[in-house]
Amino acid sequence: RAYVADMRHFLDAAGIDDPEELAHVGPETLIAYRNAMLEAGTAPATIGRRLSTLRSFFSMLVTLGRMEQNPADPKIVRSPRIDREGKTPGIEPHEARRMLKAPDTGTLIGKRAKAILAAGLYLGLRREEIANLDLSDLRDERSHHVLEVRGKGGKTRVLPVPPAAYSAIVDYLSATGRTLGGSGPLIVSLGHAAAEGARLSGRDVWNIVRKYADQAGVNREISPHSMRVAAITSALDHGAPIHRVQIMAGHADPRTTTRYYRAGEELDESATYAIRY
């Protein structure tokens, strides 16, 4: 989604209507594009992401023999310096506890909301990762309840599900009459006959998180990514080693052998078990 938006933004800014023109773009066009964004006050991180998208695209054209060199080469078109301190507002532990208590779990909608909040706060999942979960992704492995999560770039990771999160998810599933190991999405739409049972979108997850942040009195621009920040922070604060937090968050791609020879060790010591609220 972001890749498509970045390409469209560049095409509009550069006034390119014919795709064939892309094979003739030079560094001067990209430098002017970067400078125009800087002058417009675009965030450095956004500029960097857009330039990264273009470098990837033009690299493909070079590989295909449509261009001789990449006009977005970072040695020529430098990205602006990015402040590495995160800007996404986090959620304090007491706020996380209030959010988890906010849904009315006497209702199906409340049970679903708590399952979503638990997936974000205890597992650090992105909103698209929550939306894309399937029933078959939740299973038992080596005496652990685990979720197989599909992350960015199609990469998958297997995360142990802490008891509080597992209880919330199973409680929601039981209320829907569905069981583990079935087919279809884990989190589904409710209430509208035309869409009932359909997979939620990332935007739906966003709206649900915002709703219960408001109900819990968290008066900031909280988003699903804020839950991810809270989970990573809590894991680190409670002693989880940094490399295990990276695995949990999907920031690093663990070796495929960890699913085999070292699978038991990885699950026993996962960062998800260090999270506390």
Secondary structure topology:
Layout: H1 2-14, H2 27-39, H3 44-63, H4 93-101, H5 108-123, H6 127-131, E1 138-141, E2 144-150, E3 156-160, H7 163-176, H8 202-215, H9 224-237, H10 242-249, H11 263-268
Characterization of the model:
This protein is mainly alpha-helical and 277 residues long. Helix content is 48%, strand content 6%. The protein has eleven helices and three strands; from the N terminus they run ααααααβββααααα. It has a three-stranded antiparallel sheet, with no helix packed on it. α4 packs antiparallel against α5 and α5 packs antiparallel against α7. The radius of gyration is 22 Å and the shape is elongated.
Nearest-integer average pLDDT: 85
Q: Name the helix and strand elements from N-terminus to C-terminus, one letter apiece.
A: HHHHHHEEEHHHHH
**Cα Rg:** 22 Å
Number of strands: 3
Helical fraction equals: 40-55%
Strand order of the largest sheet: 1-2-3
The major beta sheet can be summarized as:
3 strands, antiparallel
Shape descriptor reads: elongated
Strand content: 5-15%
Helix segment tally: 11
Q: Are there runs of 5+ residues with pLDDT below 50, and where? A: 253-265
Q: What distance separates the N and C termini?
A: 33 Å
Broad structural category? mainly alpha
In short:
The protein has 277 residues and is mostly helical. It has eleven helices and three strands, in the order H-H-H-H-H-H-E-E-E-H-H-H-H-H.
